[in-house]
Amino acid sequence: MIILLSPSKTIDFDDPPPTDEATRPRFHADANRLAVALQDYRPKKMAQLMSVSEALAEKTCGFYSKWKKKYDGQGTKQAIFAYRGDVYTGLQAEDLSGRKLVFAQEHLRVLSGLYGALRPLDLIRPYRLEMGIRLQTEKGKDLYAYWGDRITRSLCDDLEGAGARVVLNLASAEYFKAVAPAKLDARIITPAFKEEKDGKFRFLSMFGKRARGLMARYVIENQIKTVEKLAHFKEEGYRLNKSLSEGDQLVFTRKQR
Q1: pLDDT range class, residue 68, cuts 50, 70, 90
Q2: What angle do CA 70, 73, 75 make, to 5 degrees?
Q3: Which 3-state string (H, E, C) describes 32-43?
């Protein structure tokens, strides 16, 4: 089983990571090319490209102006410890160690607009680049064109050593769009997490994102490799709702808090 997550817009490079174990991103050279291209952007142009405030665009320009093409580890942090936000609050990666961290390294992938696909211990630099941004490159009009089928091919390689050919898609639609499901030759499980109030069920972003991290944590802690065991997920009050689930679309619900 391979677990897919989206990255977080919020990052932390100030707090030290709990381990020195680290790996090199597989698509480091590709990330370099994108970073170099973004070095030409000034805050106003960056704000237009990313649809953010000029203050945030200026901070983003600062990331790329300090970018080092040489891979030396300085100014970097392992991806799983660098990302913050609701998904990673649920994941609680800082508590993973030993066999759990090894399992995560083998079975968890973070899809990234800049880095393509990351393993948990891959060292990354501070950045901001969402997958859906229409950044023109020599490969096409946006990042989906830039990455082509390379992310999919890397996931196919990962599936070879992951036991059951199952992809647990906990990524957002924006990021999963960078994957070609038909080429994975795998069963794709896409959970949804909904809150129930007055008999109505709905997805609430903050809770749903945290729940994705909780499920990733559940799989890692229990080293789950089969779809059947996913149905036992009961973290923070969620339960599988069989009446709302259909096929590989598993829906977990709980009373709204």
Answers
A1: confident
A2: 95
A3: HHHHHHHCCCCH
* 109 vs 92: CA distance, rounded Å: 16
**Parallel, antiparallel, or unpaired for β 116-118 and 77-78?**
unpaired
Say what the pLDDT of residue 163 is. Answer: 77
Query: Which amino acid is located at 139 in the chain?
Result: K
Helices (H), the chain: 28-38, 43-50, 54-65, 79-82, 86-91, 98-107, 143-147, 150-160, 173-176, 181-184, 205-222
Residues in the chain: 257
Q: Are 218 and 104 in contact (CB under 8 A)?
A: no
DSSP summary character for residue 95: G
Write down the pLDDT at residue 162: 80
Residue indicated by tokens 């799989």: 219
Name the 3-class secondary structure at 190. coil
Of the candidates 109, 112, 138, which has an alpha carbon nearest to the alpha carbon of residue 121? Answer: 109
In tens, the pLDDT along 135-189 reads 999 999 999 999 999 999 999 999 998 878 999 999 999 999 999 999 999 999 9
What are 183-223's pLDDT values in tens digits?
Answer: 999 999 999 999 999 889 999 999 999 999 999 999 999 99
Looking at residue 67, its amino acid is W
Q: Please give the structure tokens belonging to residue 194.
A: 């909904």
DSSP assigned state of 47: H
Non-local (6+) Cβ contacts of 139 within 8 A are: 145, 146, 148
Q: Hey, what are 181's tokens? A: 């499901």
